[in-house]
Amino acid sequence: MSTPLFAIESVSKRYGGLTAVCEVSLELREGDLVGLIGPNGAGKTTCFNLITGADACSAGCVRWEGRDVSALPDWRRARLGMARTFQNIRLWKDMTALDNVRAVCREADEAGWIDGLLRTPRHRRVERAVTAKAHDLLARLDLERYAGLRAGDLPYGPQRKLEIARALALEPRLLLLDEPAAGMNPSEKQELMHTVERLRGELGLTILLIEHDMRFVMGICQRIYVLDHGERIAHGTPEEIRRDPKVVAAYLGSAS
Amino acid sequence: MGATGLLALTLGPTGLWWTDLLVMVGIYALLGLSLNLINGYGGMFSLGHHGLWALGAYMAAWCTNAWQGALPGPVLFGVSAIVAMCAAALGGLAIGVPCLRLRGDYLAVATLGFAEIVRIAIQNLPASIFGGSAGIDVPRVLMDVTPATRGDFRVLWLVILVVAVVLVGWLLRNLVRSARGRALLAVAQDEIAAGLLGIQGTRTKVMAFVLGSAGAGLAGALYAHYQGKLLPADFSFLSMVSILLIVVLGGLGSITGCILAAFVLRYVEQVLQLQGQETLPFGVLRLPEAVGMWLRDWWPVVYALILVLLMIFRPHGIFGPRELPDLVRAWRARRKGAQA
Amino acid sequence: MFSDYLLNGLGLGAIYAFIALGYTMVYGIIRLINFAHGEVVMVGAYAGYFTLESIPWKALGLPTPWDGALAAVAALLAGALAAGLLSLAIERFAYRPVRKAGRIAALLTAVGVSLLLQNLAIRLFGADPQPFASPLDVDASAFRWFVVILLVLLAPLLRHLVLGTRMGRAMRAVSEDLDAARLMGIPIDRVIAATFFIGAVVAGLGGVVLAATYGVVTPMLGFLPGLKAFVAAVIGGIGSIPGALIGGLVLGVAESVLPWALQGLGWQEAFAWTDALAFTFLILVLLVKPTGLLGRPLREKV
Fold first, then answer.
1. What is the rounded CA–CA span in Å between residue C84 and residue C25?
2. B165 to A118, B52, B89: CA distances (angstroms)
3. Interior CA angle at A149 toward A145 and A154, to 5°?
4. Distance between CA A118 and CA C181 in Å, rounded?
5. Is residue A20 less than 8 Å (CB to CB) from chain B?
6. How far is CA A127 from CA A89, A94, B176, in A?
7. CB of C302 within 8 Å of any CB in chain A?
8. Which ipTM was obtained for this model?
9. Which residues make Cβ contacts (< 8 Å) with residue A194, sequence separation at least 6?
10. What is the DSSP code string of B257-271?
């Protein structure tokens, strides 16, 4: 239990005069399932962007296994082992569900452009591996029947699950889920909760999760960080958070 | 049987016209296919493809002139083609590395600027290198014939172009179905998401751009050797619009559509040129007098109008990002559904 | 003489500025590079040309300096109006339908319109250059000064338009956030049309002046200056009106002075490569500071 798998230390993000995130710190140990909540506009997705490298921090640093990775571009961080889903679904809509997952598989690195052009044995080997893995991931999320369909044509719930399958193709150690249950009906949410927990066990994932649905968050997270107006106002177990007056005030002060 | 048919194809004015048409269709198809990799699958917007085509053509010309006699004809032809492809690829790299991190419309203008620079360079460099405004001659090394007997060897050119188009089409198809191809498609549709999932956007786009440029270079080498003479005016922005129209008409991201569009466009253009002549080669439509003459004169205007109307009403082109076989299948399925 | 080249450059630069304005305003409001803008310039030039040719200005009986001046004003107004109206038509019939189809479709449409206008002009006016005789009896340098002064007079007018009027505020709102502006009740279509119109009117002036400067009108008149004016807009910062004006002047001066300087340093053929200068500039600017001298950075939300 030495260094945490992942941490952000006193991270801030300023856009001109607006401070979206102000000196926020959080850390995750291997295997954790942590929630990140807060009223709308609290800076949760901005944090995700800072973590993954979609945006640069104005201050503070991002650590992966103790190493400062703040200077690394997004794709490098992804390859280190952090993958994410998006608040507004960002699937590659014109590609099939299977291809969405296959595009992300890192096994594909082995086959270069020439291999692809000429269909070399290496290309064929890589294709088999990647396709098998993609099918496996789709199966894990019960999406097999959508494999050949255009991702944009999928119903909403499966689209959200496909985003998760795609993120998993990276074989991440840290999975960042940005409102994975948004727009789902209660039974879909229940199913998602079980799926997330199951995947965590099966794949040994560490998970950081943004969600608005309190039942969802309280139901599966071990610990919760609460943000409001860009600052961290609370951190603790679901019970502690539920009772924290600051948290209650933050939520009552805004429509959520 | 086939050989006599092919031979008959090249005899007489009909054969001559058709082989010339098909060879040029082939060259434009190559240009369209290579641009499709960049603009279609790659989701980029290059308006400088004609500059890379020119680069390839002129480098092939220079190479052939420089080493004429030192190598046997066909070998020199092959070498010049490789030189052309490499030169175009390097040109693509030179423009791609700095500019592909720019957004769509900026890239369009940067590539256009690059093509203009190429044109100006060709015109202004010492005439000994590229011939300047007067153009450069390409020695006929592929076959040791005078222009008078050129017709006899058009079959060969036809074969070369068919092979080239099929080859490039096959390579493109392979690429799109491969790992790197999927990465490219992902980057084209949502580069930010791709980056966050480990796909390096700029590197992927640059590679696609370089490969597309090499394709243009190949088209350039074939063009140079077929025509026998190059003029800077051959590679104007107008030619870029032709290539663009082919890609758009055929559907961004459709290989068969691209080839078909190249044929349709070229055929219409050439047919219109012939209107008003006494005898027409077989297979060339004779339009009613007035219509034919009017279209021939107003073709550039009509052609631009087609592009505009196409973008307004069918921005995905005739085929869209699908192939001819897919469309046939879909049509058959719909018919079956209607009967059931 | 350096001052000659400098003045030349300023005169040319002012023309670029006139044209660049239209590019920058349209890009600022709907993120479209209006490829057809160069052809709008050309049409303005032809309108001015026909105004001069079809009316017997000298026979009107006015005293000598004034008949020329009247003709010039008429030509400028005709050019401006023709360009403005054409631009409105293009926006309404070609660009508006593709506004939703994505940037690439819009750009292709613009390219198509550009080609359409060029070829239409070739068919209607003939491909040969026609001599454009300036009705003003002034020498070249005085004319350059005239153009620069025109620009200097125009600039504060534009500034007032954009900062002081309601339409100007609406234009700025739409360029900041189109959807928000629509939700606030701003008539988007009308604002966009006005933007096109204003940019084209100024460009039309530029077209007439361009024709007068070079003494010819041809259907291809707008193509290269149009491209270069776009470069000028990018240099100054696309989306920024002062940027377009400054970028235009900078490019004009550079195009005039740099080849002269290089030739002085020994490169004989420097002037032949003048056109390449603008594009090299463009690529450099795009690499080093894509937002240009005065441009604002644009972010994309994740």
1. 14
2. 15, 18, 18
3. 85
4. 52
5. no
6. 26, 20, 13
7. yes
8. 0.89
9. none
10. HHHHHHHHHHHHHHH
As a whole number of angstroms, the distance between CA A21 and CA A47 comes to 7
* Binary contact (B116, C279; C-beta < 8 A): yes
Q: Which of C204, C206, C199 is nearest to C81 (CA)?
A: C204
- The chain B residues in contact with chain A (CB within 8 A) are 171, 174-175, 177-183, 185-186, 189-190, 192-201, 207, 211, 321
- How high does pLDDT run on average in chain C? 87
Select the highest-mean-pLDDT range: A23-27, A110-114, B106-110, C42-46: C42-46
- Helix (H), strand (E) at residue A14: strand A6-15
Encoded tokens for B85:
């492809």
pLDDT value for C58: 72
Angle separating helix axes B12-35 and B237-250, nearest 10 degrees: 80
C98 confidence band (pLDDT: 50, 70, 90):
confident
In this prediction the pTM is: 0.87
- Distance from C-alpha of B195 to C-alpha of B186, rounded to nearest angstrom: 10
Q: What is the mean pLDDT of chain A?
A: 89
Which residues touch A42 (CB under 8 Å, ≥6 apart)?
A: A227, A228, A229, A230, A250
Average pLDDT over residues B237-263: 85
Size of interface B-C (CB pairs under 8 A): 121
CB C3 within 8 A of CB C218: no
Which residues in B lie closer than 8 A to residue C287 (C-beta atoms)? Answer: 98-99
**Residue A1: is its pLDDT beyond 80?**
no
Contact list, A53 vs chain B (CB under 8 Å): 196
Nearest chain A alpha carbon to B186: A92
Tokens standing for residue C119: 């070829």
Does the structure show a pLDDT above 80 at C1?
no
Instruction: Give the C-alpha separation, C58 to C62, whole Å.
Output: 7
**CA–CA distance from A234 to each of A222, A237, A250, B324 (Å)?**
14, 10, 11, 59
- Which of B23-27, C69-73, C120-124 comes out lowest in average pLDDT? C69-73
What's residue C107's pLDDT? 83
Exposure of B207 in the CB half-sphere (CA atoms within 13 A): 17
Tell me the two tokens of residue A89.
């679904």
Return the residue of C nearest to B114 by Cα: C279
Question: Residue B234 carries which DSSP code?
Answer: G
Biggest alpha carbon–alpha carbon distance for chain A: 64
Among A198, A193, A209, A200, smallest CA distance to A173 is for A200
The span from the CA of A104 to the CA of A92, in Å, is 11
Q: What is the mean pLDDT of residues C144-152?
A: 88
Q: Which residue of B has its CA nearest to C302?
A: B192
Q: Which residues of A touch B173 (CB under 8 A)?
A: none
- Beta strands at A33-37 and A59-64: parallel, antiparallel or unpaired: unpaired
**Helix, strand, coil shares of chain C as percentages rounded to 5?**
80, 0, 20
pLDDT digits (tens, 9 = 90+) for B143-191: 554 444 455 567 788 888 999 999 999 999 999 999 999 999 999 999 9
Strand pairing report for A82-84 and A174-178: parallel
Query: Do the chains contact at C108 and B244, CB–CB below 8 Å?
Result: yes
Considering only CB atoms, which chain A residues are within 8 Å of C302?
45, 49, 54-55, 86
Contacts of A162 in chain B (CB under 8 A): none
Q: Provide CB contacts within 8 A for A45, sequence distance 6+.
A: A87, A178, A210, C302
Taking alpha carbons only, the member of B244, B273, B310 closest to residue B111 is: B244
pLDDT recorded at residue A161: 92
Q: Are β-strands A223-228 and A206-210 bridged in parallel, bridged antiparallel, or unpaired?
A: unpaired
Q: How confident is the model at residue B1 (pLDDT cuts 50, 70, 90)?
A: very low
